[in-house]
Amino acid sequence: MNAISRRRLIKSGVAATVGVAGLAAASRIARRYGLIPPDGSGIYGPGETLTYAAQRLMTRHSLAREFPRSMISEKPFGNPVAPPSDAFKRLQATGFADWRLTVDGMVTHPTAFSLADLKTLPTHSQITEVVCEEGWSYVAEWIGTPLSNLLNEVGVLPQARYVVYNSIEPDWWESVDMADALHPQTFLTMGMNNGDLPVAFGGPLRLRVPRQLGYKSVKYITHITVTDSLKRFGKGLGSASPEAGYSWYAGI
Amino acid sequence: MVIAFLALLITGGEIIISHPRFYWGETGNSGTTPLFRIPIPASRDSVPTGYGYQLPDQNGWSRYLHFEAAWVLVLTGLIYVVAGLLNAHFRRDLLPPPGERNWRAVRAVLQRYRRRAPPDAKDNHAYNVVQRLSYLAVIFGLFPLVIWTGLALSPAFDSAVPAAVNLLGGRQSARTLHFFVTDLLVAFLVVHITMIALAGFWKRTAAMFTGREAASSKTKGAERR
User: Fold this and answer.
1) What pLDDT band is residue B6 in, cutting at 50, 70 and 90?
2) Weakest mean pLDDT among A45-59, A187-201, B104-118
């Protein structure tokens, strides 16, 4: 076993020390520039952090692919959801006239918007793909207003780092960082394929985040909170997904 | 690297179980016709499989581990490729020597395998032309392809590099190709392990880690590596 000479041992030792010091420095830099995801600890933390940091450096402004009208799926697939709660059914009975989207947290004017209020914001449409983590997908036209328009209305404080959004249905909430929250394709969606957004696809109000997997596009949105830290929300892992074993950042 | 590959294989299988149907083109889901499906039950009730029950859902941790193992494989793979280029390992040990870059040399090796003839003396310490070509195809063909088809499944990566998925014919084509390339890698692994077993598993595996052969096995002096 004289294959491992003293020189080689010293060299390996130096390399390992430099490696550990480099990792420590990298983690400090990553923290400073917000490149560590809220679920970036534990055994899968290093992989999640590498993925999120790489994507944030590479895809801060890039646009999800948009498709021609001819590629809209004839059979979009509405992932089955649990039967609606009584709260949802009450609002549905009056045609969602009393549906409210409450926006609070680190904003200068906390506001509750009705669907009619939201429709006064500039309306845009995008033809993008819904990609489920299971593997299937479909393309649809989504009509609504970029979330950034709403955030401009309420005035986001400069220290804001994340936007948390909740469904009317219990334990269904997600969050995105400001890069995704202010992204022009992140839509408060109220219409689909030239009609109202069907309940099966998240109507009356769904937040579409087309650069991430479908589970980030929460259905039946009623509450948005702007925050500088995700620690106080749920178990502090960023959203309901990591609590159920799925990664917070779903752009992969 | 081997552990990362096996982790990717197992978790990849678990991810497929959540939707064991494959499509071609951009889109595909339970409402459209699949290219083919794997005849197993799924772990989700939204997938029509013909079975009346579901397998346990292991998708969450499988996805976490799949992507972490992918990082390990890609980073160690990069070190391996850069080192192999710098120390001329690929040129010296894997590129077929000038005289053997033809079908005749390939056929000669295959015939020896078929006759179960003992290997040439020189093959004890160097790869034959079939081995060399297979290893080159795996290192510079299948591995880059499996990484490419995998990256093409990331919606965020596709937003930065749309060609990654468009060149493959769409998202569902990329997923199907990712599955096929993985199958080829598994086929290589099975043949590779079988050949090593035939050649003496412990002797070859020990040689792989230490870079030299056990003293008792060979009396030849001129070792190449």
Assistant:
1) very high
2) B104-118
In a domain, B110, yes or no: yes
Phi, psi of A107 (to 5 degrees): -130, 155
First to last CA, chain A: 44
Task: List, for residues B114-156, the tens digit of each pLDDT value.
Answer: 988 877 766 677 899 999 999 999 999 999 999 999 999 999 9
Using the Cβ of B19 and the Cβ atoms of chain A, whether some distance falls under 8 Å is answered with: yes
> Could you tell me the residue range of the domain that residue B163 belongs to?
88-207
Task: Measure the CA–CA gap between A92 and A98, rounded to whole angstroms.
Answer: 9
**Distance between CA atoms of residues A252 and B114, nearest Å:** 46
Q: Is A143 helix (H, G, I), strand (E, B) or coil?
A: strand
CA distance A239 to A166: 10
Q: Contacts of residue A79 in chain B, CB cutoff 8 Å? A: 46
- Alpha helix (H) ranges present in A5-101? 6-32, 45-58, 86-93
Q: Establish if B3 belongs to a structural domain.
A: no
Question: Using CB atoms, which residue from B18, B30, B45 is nearest to A77?
Answer: B30
Average pLDDT over chain B, rounded to whole? Answer: 90
CB contact under 8 A, A210 and B18: no
With beta carbons under 8 A apart, name residues in chain B contacting A58: 156-157, 160
Q: Helices B171-210 and B2-17: crossing angle, nearest 10°? A: 150
* Chain B neighbors of A70, CB-CB under 8 A: none
Q: Which of the 8 DSSP states describes residue A48?
A: H
The domain tally of chain B equals 1
| Single pTM value for the model | 0.90
Residues 129-188 of B with CB under 8 A from A: 153-160, 162, 165-166, 171-172, 175
Encode pLDDT of A74-132 as tens digits. Answer: 989 988 888 899 999 999 999 999 999 999 999 999 999 999 999 999 999 999 999 99
Q: Is the ipTM of this complex over 0.85?
A: yes
Q: Which two tokens stand for residue A200?
A: 């099966």
Is the Cβ–Cβ distance between A251 and A62 less than 8 Å? no
Query: In terms of C-beta density within 10 A (0-12 exposed, 13-18 middle, 19 or more buried), how is residue B136 classed?
Result: middle
Fold of the domain spanning A64-243: Sulfite Oxidase; Chain A, domain 2 (3.90.420)
